[in-house]
Each structure stands twice: as C-alpha cells, then as structure tokens.
Give the backbone structure.
Amino acid sequence: MINTLNSQLLAKYPFIKHFFSTRIGGHSHSPFQWANMSIKSGDPYSLKNRQQLASELDVPLERFVFMDQIHSDNILIASEQDAGKGSTSADDAIKYYDALVTNKPNLMLIVTTADCVPVLIADTRKKVIAAVHAGWRGSAKLITFKAVQKMKDGYNSSPHDIVAVIGPSIGPCCYQVGQDVLEAFKYTFARKADDFFERRKNKLYLDLWKVNKYQLLQAGIPEQNIDHIALCTSCNNNKFYSARRGDKGRQIAGIMLKQNH
Ligand SMILES: [Zn+2]
C-alpha cells in the first residue's frame, strides 16, 4: 500500500475523491525511496508507483491529469481531452500551468510537490474542483486566490460553498528564504507581506501556509471551510520528499469528482 493522507473536511463529501501521497509504501530504491511519483526524476520505479496508487484509489491512471509545472499563476480549465495527460510519460504533461480547474467527472487533477504547497479546492454545491501548486513564486503571484476566482468566473461558484485544504508542504519552521523573496511579496502584498515572514537569529523564514490561507480567506471562503494538514515536508522527511533536503523524488496530491453522485 502506498500511504496517503486525507482531509477530514473534504472526506465529508461523497462525490469527491482526494488524496495526498507520501513517500511511504512504494517500490523506489535509493535515492528515491520509496513512493516517488515523478517520472522525470530518472527513477525506473516511478511509473510502477503511480500504477499502484491508481489501483489502490480505484481510479485508472488514464484518468489522472498531470501538469508540467513552472511556478506560474497560469490556471487551466481541464476537459475530457486532458484525461491521462502526463500520466505515463512526462512528455505529454500539460505545459506551462500550475493549477487545474474542472466540473467534469472522473478527472483526477494532480499537483506534484516536494516542499511547495498543494491546495485542493471544491465547490460542493456546483461541483467544481481545483488543484493548485503554490511555491513561493506562485504564492507571490496569488495563484490560490486566482484559482478560486477562476471557479467564480467560470462556474459562478459562491465562496461560501467552497472548501479548501492546504496540504503537506514546507513549514515556517524550515523555509528559510532570501531577501529577494520578501521583495517579491512586498510587490504583491505591500506592507501586508511582513505578516508572512518571521526573522529568527537574523534569518528570514516564509510561512507559505499562512499566505495561502490568506488568499483563500481573501477570496471569501469562510475560515471553517479551510482545512490545513499542518505537516512540514522538511521536518517529516521520513514521510515526505523535500526538495530543500535534496530529494529528487516527488509526492502528488489529487482531487476528482465522482460520476453519478
Ligand atoms: Zn519544518
């Protein structure tokens, strides 16, 4: 079994399937141990890990939709023709996007991470979902806020019907950044930017969890509709891949609308 985590909040909705994968339970050998989901990492077992996960989720891998993420704020409305993209080869992953939105059933929207924040979002009334990849660059470009905006614009979603989960990612405990990152945030958030950073022993740390929660709140989502799996990928490097720790492996998060619900 490949170990996965769920959000209690999203799990309440029977028409939604979702997961956050961990590194525990797959086939990969060192340095990718164990459940590496990146097929461009050079790991010969990554596809086998994906197939096993798909089988355990009871969703064919041909229904997964992978992006070739670039730390942008580009958001794609995924359609039936995107099913399976990037699932068995990195070559046909959806290029130049970092978030997917859809109201189509049986499309498992995937984000790939190792420290960056996976945000899964669902309008539980209109049945619209989103998967967002938010590292510091995407967060500074407001990708999470814009993904909710895309749901509002494209599907007339009301933020009060939306639930969201901030997944496992590097925490403010470990995410030391340079002055350039603070400058980028000031460009977007002006004086508010300081709220997302901490200085400890003359080092600067960014709280990606806080800035993404802020974007969800700014989009009008009620606080009780926001779940946060507060696990730091760097602190918990035995359970998650961490790019900052030098890992080339990646975990994935996925969300899908089931048919006939
Ligand atoms: Zn940490």
Observations:
- The domain at 4-257 is CATH 3.60.140.10 (CNF1/YfiH-like putative cysteine hydrolases).
- The chain is about 20% helix and 25% strand.
- The pocket of zinc ion is lined by residues 171, 173-174, 232, 234-235 (CB under 6 Å).
